[in-house]
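Milestone 3.1: sequence recovery, worked example.
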């Protein structure tokens, strides 16, 4: 089968979406199919310009220049797979070509509709999300990464069930438990004491990642429950408000910010952590949950979908709005963390790349037929 994958514009640095497209490319090639991955090239957008104009120059690359190449490349393919729903507007160039879109979440669309007052969308963002919505509504087939996302597509976009299906994502890297001695060497290179207990946080400062809540919860564990534990933060550096909280609550000597790390560094961090703290308010899937579980790391995450859908009975669920009750739950679960490690590995195995690849190939065959 000839499959054309449509990926994301590199300057946008949407790392999770870039990883998903690369994962699909790897899996389909491994199965013996002919696959090409195309994405808008930074032509106009590469010219030096003030930051405020970068977005608009990128729009020229993505929406004026790329469609011509997409139409040309689509002639070769049996099926076109748009790997990120935020590129759903490209379906207007694929009317006569079998195509499928992976929808990861509707958070930006819901924000543009005013569902999240804490995350306001400007006028240009509202126009863009309306354009994406129209593309999704006219798509031949939409694959959602969770049932939670499927329900949003039905409720928000009024897309009929017959055009929706669910295919869980696999892992974008072969995460697995790393032996303690080996992991300790990685932690030492990161400047961490591998004998020190810590909770791990992975993510960025987006409103729904709830990072300030994580710090408030951590402060409760230290001061109220007297736990001798640290926090290691991977991803974007904390913002001013978060750093001010750390200073005011006097937990600075317990918090380490690492920034971006390699996949093997992250595997080591998961393998040695007392738990992953992932109190997200909204997600489409929640890759860190599976990554952590695949490494035998206990997971503390929100008692909301899709976290409960992905974590199954192998995660510990907390209220992401109450640091007091969340800290109490985590405190009560510390004695049983070892049992959670084995359960997590079993749960993560249910989300295999092989199953994902097989499900997408079934989707391709269905829409081609």
């Amino acid at each position: 089968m000839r499959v054309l994958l449509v990926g994301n514009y590199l300057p946008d640095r949407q790392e999770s979406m870039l990883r998903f497209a690369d994962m699909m490319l790897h899996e389909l090639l491994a199965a013996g199919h002919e696959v090409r991955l195309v994405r808008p090239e930074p032509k106009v957008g590469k010219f030096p310009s003030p930051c405020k104009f970068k977005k608009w120059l990128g729009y020229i690359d993505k929406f004026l220049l790329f469609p011509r190449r997409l139409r040309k490349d689509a002639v070769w393919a049996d099926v076109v797979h748009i790997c990120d729903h935020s590129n759903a507007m490209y379906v207007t160039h694929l009317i006569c070509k079998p195509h499928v879109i992976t929808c990861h979440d509707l958070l930006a669309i819901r924000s543009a509709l005013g569902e999240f007052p804490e995350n306001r969308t400007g006028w240009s963002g509202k126009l863009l999300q309306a354009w994406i919505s129209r593309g999704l509504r006219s798509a031949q087939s939409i694959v959602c990464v969770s049932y939670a996302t499927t329900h949003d597509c039905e409720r928000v976009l009024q897309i009929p069930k017959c055009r929706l299906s669910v295919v869980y994502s696999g892992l974008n890297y072969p995460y697995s438990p790393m032996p303690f001695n080996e992991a300790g060497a990685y932690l030492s290179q990161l400047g961490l004491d591998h004998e020190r207990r810590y909770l791990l946080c992975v993510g960025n400062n987006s409103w729904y990642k709830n990072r300030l809540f994580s710090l408030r919860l951590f402060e409760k564990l230290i001061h109220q429950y007297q736990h001798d534990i640290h926090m290691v933060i991977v991803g974007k550096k904390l913002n001013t408000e978060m750093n001010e909280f750390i200073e005011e609550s006097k937990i600075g000597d317990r918090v380490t910010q690492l920034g971006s790390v390699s996949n093997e560094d992250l595997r080591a961090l998961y393998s040695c952590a007392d738990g992953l703290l992932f109190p997200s308010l909204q997600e489409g899937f929640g890759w860190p949950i599976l990554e952590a579980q695949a490494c035998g790391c206990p997971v503390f995450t929100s008692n909301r979908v899709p976290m409960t859908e992905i974590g199954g009975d192998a995660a510990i669920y907390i209220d992401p709005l109450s640091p007091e009750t969340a800290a109490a739950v985590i405190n009560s679960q510390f004695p049983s963390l070892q049992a959670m490690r084995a359960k997590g590995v079993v749960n993560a195995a249910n989300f295999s790349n092989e199953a994902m690849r097989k499900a997408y190939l079934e989707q391709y065959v269905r829409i081609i037929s």
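The CA atoms of residues 217 and 323 lie 5 Å apart. Residues 180-348 form a domain with the Rossmann fold fold (CATH 3.40.50.2000).
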